Structures are given as C-alpha cells and as structure tokens.
Amino acid sequence: MISKRETSLKVAEFLLQIKAIKLQPNSPFTWASGWKSPIYCDNRVTLSYPPVRTYIRQRLSEVINEELNGVNLIAGVATAGIPQGVLVAQELGLPFAYVRSSPKDHGMNNMIEGEVTPGQKVVVVEDLVSTGKSSLKAVEALRAAGCEVVGLVCIFNYGFDEAVENFKNANCKIISLSNYSDLIDHALSSSAISEKDVEVLRSWREDPSNWGKTETV
Known about the structure:
- By secondary structure, this protein is an alpha/beta fold.
- 40% of the residues lie in helices and 21% in strands.
- The protein has helices at residues 4-17, 50-67, 81-92, 133-144, 161-169, 180-189, 195-206; strands at 21-23, 29-30, 36-37, 39-41, 73-77, 96-99, 112-113, 121-129, 148-157, 174-179.
- A hairpin with a 5-residue loop joins strand 2 and strand 3.
- The protein is globular.
- The protein starts with a helix and ends in an 11-residue tail after the last helix.
C-alpha cells in the first residue's frame, strides 16, 4: 500500500516534471490577488499527460474510499475542479455535479449544475487550495441545497494558516494529495532548487501576502 508521504512526493515529482508547478525564487510571479510568489501552480496541465492524469485520478479515488464514508455524489468546483471531479466520479461510478463561482445570470440562475438531492453525501473535488475561500463557497452552496459535505479533496495545497483556519471554521475536512512542504523537499532532493532557494521559498510560505514587498529576492 502506498503511504501518504510517498503519494505526496510522487505527485510533487509529476507536477514539477510536467511544469504544472513552476518555481522561480529569483523571478517571482504575480498572482491575480496581487501577491508576489516564487511558485505558480496550474494543475490543468495534468490533463494533458495521461499517466499523470491516471495517477491523480486513482489516488483521489482511493483517498475518498479510505477516508470519506458513504459518498454518493462527487462535486467539482468550477472551473479547474470540474475535469478532475468528472474523472473521479467515473472511477468511482458515482453521479457528478459542479458548482459555479456565482449563480448563472440567465435561465434557471443555477449555481449548482447537475442533479443534486437533499441528504446526499458529497465530496467536493478541487485542483488547488490556497486560502480556501472559493472552495468553501462551493461547500456552502451544496450545504444550502441540503447536501451533507463529508469533505474536500484536492491535488495540491499550499497549507496557508488562513486556509487551515477557514476550513476549521467551516467544519469541512480537507485532504490533499500533495503539499508545499513535500514539494520543496522533492525539489531540493532532485536538485531542482538549491539550499538558498529553500530559504526564500519557506520565507514566502510564512507570510505570502507581504512577501516581496520589503525584500529583494
């Protein structure tokens, strides 16, 4: 049986290998939020690589079977969580729905697309969790529709303190295949980064919203 640590390191290896994750400690990216960051993650890239896509689908499905009980609906978070959620739902033979970021502005004004029944036990599938706000908005929408959200699974999680607090306050379990700490460990062991880079990457993790504002990297 594959351990969680082995899975995390393997996923990190894949994400770096296919450049779904890019590390640039000396040439930071700018996120949509305005944050400066030495890392950029786009897990949609995994869909273009069948072996990686298969590995992620299988591991997410195993996690759901092993740690989340009685699930009878998989819900993806629009947009990047939709394809991952469909793959998992197909693997598990379960119905699928997805949650928009906001209600559709025409037609039925749906926020949830697909058939959802009050009382269903749902697992939310997300590709990436940063602060967790958009993911938890989907959780709230499903709960408002009468569903019981048993947890959220994702491919990668930065592990920000803000996200930990947000999920705790929402009483929502979160399970991630890989995480920022294991990513750095793998990147260092594979010589993708240097010891000096590790210091920069870890300093960002400690205070991401202010990183890069008063220091030169």
